[in-house]
Amino acid sequence: MGAGAGIGLVSSSGGTATGTTGATRAAAPRVLGPHDWQTVPAPACTPAAQLLGVAAAGPDLAWAVGEEGRNGGTRGVPLALVWDGGAWTRLDLSHLGLTGGYLSSVAASAGAAWAVGTDRGGVARLLRWDGSTWQESLFAGRLAYGTSLTGVALDAKDRVWLSGRNSDGCVLLRGDGGDDGWTWVTPPPTPPRSAPAGVRVAPDGGVWVYDAALVARWDGETWTELPAPAGLRPTVTGLLPVAADDVWLTGYDYGVGGPPGKPPSVTLRHWDGNAWTYATTPFTVGMLTAIVADDRGGPDRIAGWDFWDQTRAHYLRWENGAWVSERGPLSTAPVLLSGLAPVPGTGGYWSVGTNSASPYPPAQVYVER
Predict the structure, then answer these.
(1) Are 236 and 211 in contact (CB under 8 A)?
(2) I need a labelling partner for 337 at 20 to 30 A (CA). Which of 270, 328, 330, 354 fits?
(3) How are strands ordered across the β-sheet holding 234-243?
(4) Among residues of the chain, what percentage have pLDDT more than 90?
């Protein structure tokens, strides 16, 4: 992948490999320009299927997680794919005993990979990559009532940080990788109403948790809270903390009223150290679903869904102090992305999602590079 290149993955049927199903070998990639995205074949999954998160250790190793077999509000079963540098392969998760649920988030480095999700009974699940597949990892309070996990991040020392919630109102769990090395961090001053949507580690080492009601930074000793971003019916999908006075927040807001099927409005906010302000975006009706930093920790790319042009992913690229449009390839079906991740050492990215605007059959997984 060239500088600034992206990758796209479209689901398709394929063969079978030992310990996996539905592997499809990708054709030799074309030479990409600095802002080109392309589709890459992926295994066929049980409709309706969607990928919710993606992470990469390098050009020859990446992971994507989500669910398959969902029907509207009825959850399906967890889904996991792995990239080996030439093809995406579907992983067999039967050894985990997950009869239902989903995997919502994945984080990786050159030395470790972790994923979180929830089973059909509402029990939080934490998975660790063992070099060939995902294995269950225990954590403090796993089976306790009120415990949930929503996001995962790794810091520069490969320590694991999990956003979630336990019965004491804690929203951040720290681990050293062992089953017994987990500690719930004292909760922030504002009691959380639910588990925060996600967790990010900033360039300065601060750990942030976030959602529509809570944006807070843990520095290892104390919490610092920002005002909750305003909105009528807001959903927060991502946070990029560059510095204490430079924080970006993505999402969408349905507002109040309107006919059935009314589309949401794009939300992009910036914290300047004093207040949240609205940032100008190339499109305004739809969603912003994920944000990533460049190799220096600054703003880089945002994945989005454009209501008025659903057959192409609509990315935002940070250029000369503003967010500008960057489009994915034309598709025959709607493109709804949920995850975005840089590929270390390449200047490229993976983005993942589904080829449907609604979680119903025959939706299939979709990813771009």
Answers:
(1) yes
(2) 270
(3) 234-243, 246-253, 265-271, 276-278
(4) 78
